[in-house]
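Budget justification note: compute hours in this period were largely spent on complex prediction jobs such as the one shown. Inputs:
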Amino acid sequence: MTKYIIRRVLGLIPTIFIIITICFFFIRLAPGGPFSSEKKLPPQILKNMQKKYHMDQPLIVQYGQYLVDVLRGDLGPSYKYKDYDVNYFIKQTLPKSMLLGGLALLVALILGIGTGMISSLKRNSWIDYSSMSVAVIGISVPLFVIAPILMYIFAMKLNWLPVAGWLDDGGAKTLVLPVLSLSAPYFAMIARLSRASFLDSLRSDYIRTARAKGLKTSVIMFKHVLKGASLPVVSYLGPAFSGIITGSIVIEQIFRIPGLGRHFVQSAFNRDYTMIMGTVIVYSLILVFMNFLVDIIYGYLDPRISYS
Amino acid sequence: MKKDIILKVEGLKTYFNTDEGVVKAVDGVSFELSKGETLGLVGESGSGKSVSNLSIMSLIPSPPGKIMGGKVLFGDKSIFDLSEEEMRNIRGGKIGMIFQDPMTSLNPFLRISTQMVETIVLHKKVSKHEAKKRAIEMLDLVGIPKAYDRINDYPHQFSGGMRQRVMIAMALSCDPEVLIADEPTSALDVTIQAQILELIQSLSKKLGTAVIMITHDLGVVAGMCDNVNVMYAGRIVEKGTNDEIFADPKHPYTQGLIKSVPRLDKPKQKRLYSIEGQPPNVIDLPECCPFFPRCEFAMDKCKTAYPPVTKFGDTREVSCWLYEEKTRGE
Ligand SMILES: Nc1ncnc2c1ncn2[C@@H]1O[C@H](COP(=O)(O)OP(=O)(O)OP(=O)(O)O)[C@@H](O)[C@H]1O
Ligand SMILES: [Mg+2]
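Corresponding output:
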């Protein structure tokens, strides 16, 4: 097992390296640069700026220097906000995005699996039909439609929750709408997935054995069905998490949350090369790590899988 | 004649509501099981063997299944009148069950120890530690080598035959009075089949457990059953002791079944005998003897009414118009 983990971690290095390389050159292909704005800068100032950020050197040298910096854990200075470096921005914003994404995933998992479980137990009842209809809506209506609708109903009409903001200026209430909107599509997917796999499990021979042993329904559901039935959901966690990261970029914009996603969008508009690179590296590390975690959980749940 | 009856099934009817119509999977089945007896239940695929026994355990998936009538008496308790909790005490505790496919009947995600211990703790009201000791004893008893270590393995680490042994150990771990074995060897290698059957036979004798042996293999029945019930299309068409059934099969269907068993002790036959025609479709069956389309003795009467039970002595019963005629004629 330890061997497997070491092998997997070593395998991550080339992945990250390729992502950095592609991203480094591709963002420089886009027209414009960090210092191009509406008002043209005087040539001398532009030259000085470029010199300060080593942009006067050949691209390959810049690339080499950047790799060395990244290896040392330094993501460089922001090109836009002169006195700040990228590490500082990430430290400020990442925890907020992680809280938002983590809560959304948790809500999606708990509500999704719960709904799937109840639907499968009461299949073809009105509970089943209505929750599966809600799930279809959740899957087919995009985030940027769900979020404003929830905002309109709960914040503007009913006045129960704040329209936007974050913990420090609005308290925990500010979390409710962003987390709910962000989790909606994943809740829906997980509910459908787990309904199907719970039904499969319930029909299986080993559940018939469990019933014939005289076990209670609750024991059967949580001890005998849950483990096997959660496997498809676990496999879906990887894609779900990458979706939640993309989604959080949208949600942070809509609800004005000062997270990493909003900075990502801003930095792309600003051609803030180091900021874009830093954000991409952080996002890919998170994703790669999540996929790794999913594989470990999967192996833990299914004893038939061995890591060797 | 029969004494110490522990399980009595009377006029059991279990139907399934499907899109194609009502499936009368079990349509008026009655039989008795006495202490320590091994009762064979034989019939083709779809004749309702599994459904009868799942009904006894109140394990029919509902919907679509429904028990439409009849009674099941376990000791002096009527099973369909019990609460869910009382029923759970009987399942696994008083009546143990093993199934056809040992590869899928154990939970692949849980250790053997977990699966065995939970059953013993539930019914024997002992500590986990005690239960594990008991589980290891049982595994020893069914012939799992190094049971002490193997109990911590997962099902996929055992072969099919070994898994069926584990199932038997688990089913017998709470000293049930009845063991229902639903085609316990159909999914196994021929060489292993005999071992498993022998195991069931010797353990049930040793522990005094009554066994309902469901099978479509007459060889199994001949080897180990005291009494035999032959099922066809949701009903029992013939009952008798092992000797009676094999020496003098009365129902044309039983006769066909016995003729279609390949014999090693007879000169080589040109071709194997088989009963002509298809097993009946039990959906929306009209009032008739369901065997008549395949029966060489079929009469007009067979097409319009189900034959009543004709008794021969204490132990024999046949449902066939041939014998109704005879009894009346005499
Ligand atoms: N859940 C169900 N829904 C609908 N019909 C069912 C269901 N379970 C069983 N049946 C029907 O009940 C009839 C009897 O089935 P049963 O499983 O008892 O047969 P069997 O004698 O055990 O056959 P086999 O030898 O194949 O196990 C079959 O026609 C089957 O299609
Ligand atoms: Mg069956």
